[in-house]
Amino acid sequence: MRSLTLAFTAGILAAGAAGAHGLGAAPAIQRAAGTLTCVTKPEATLVFGRTPVATCIFTAERGGFRQSYAAVFSPAAGTAELETAQTVIWQVLTKDGFARPGMLADSFTAPQGEAAAEPELVGRTATLRLLSHSGQSSATFALAQPRVQLAAARPDMER
Questions:
Q1: What is the sign, positive or negative, of the torsion defined by CA atoms of 81, 121, 48, 132?
Q2: Which stretch is the leader sequence (predicted)?
Q3: Which residue, of 47, 71, 77, 145, is most buried by count of CB atoms within 10 Å of its CB?
C-alpha cells in the first residue's frame, strides 16, 4: 500500500512538473533558511521509467524544524543514476531567511542561459542552491537535472 501511495504521489508530481512553464522570479538578496536533503528511490523509478523520484527532508536553519517532501526530478540522462539511490543536498534560500510549512511545495527550475558557479533551481518563494550530489559538489548534476517538483508529504513542520 505504501509503494502504491508513493507511486500515486510521484505521478501527480510528474504531471505538475510537466505543466510548469514559467520560472519564479528570484529575489535579489536571499538568506539561508535551511537545507533540503533528497534520496532517490530506485524501486519507485522503475514505475516511471527514466523519471527519478525521491523522499526529501527540509531542516530549517533556525529552530531545527523539519518537514518531509516527495520529489520528482526531470527525466534522467543516463541509467546509472537510476540504479542506485542518489543523495542530493541543497541549501534553501528565501528572501527573509525564515522557513514556513509547505514553502517548498513548488516547481524549481534552472534559470535559462545562466551558468553559475553554484547551480541553483528557482521557485516562487525559495531558491535551491546545490551543495552536493552523492557526496560530490557537481554542476553537472544541475545541468542533467534542471527541474525538481516538490510536494509536502506532511502539512506542517515538526521538531
A1: positive
A2: 1-20
A3: 71
DSSP string for residues in the chain: -HHHHHHHHHHHHHHHHHH--S-PPPPSS-EEEEEEEEEE-HHHHTTTTT--EEEEEEEETTTT-EEEEEEEESPPSSSHHHHS--EEEEEEEESSS---TTTT-SEEEPPTT---SS-EEE-SS-EEEEEEETTB--HHHHHH--EEEEEESSSS-B-
**Cα(105)–Cα(45) distance, integer angstroms:** 20
Q: Which residue has the cell 531558491?
A: 127
Residue 109 amino acid letter: T
Q: What is the pLDDT of residues 14-28, one digit of tens each?
A: 444 444 444 444 445
* pLDDT < 70: residue spans in the chain: 1-28, 44-50, 76-82, 113-118, 135-145
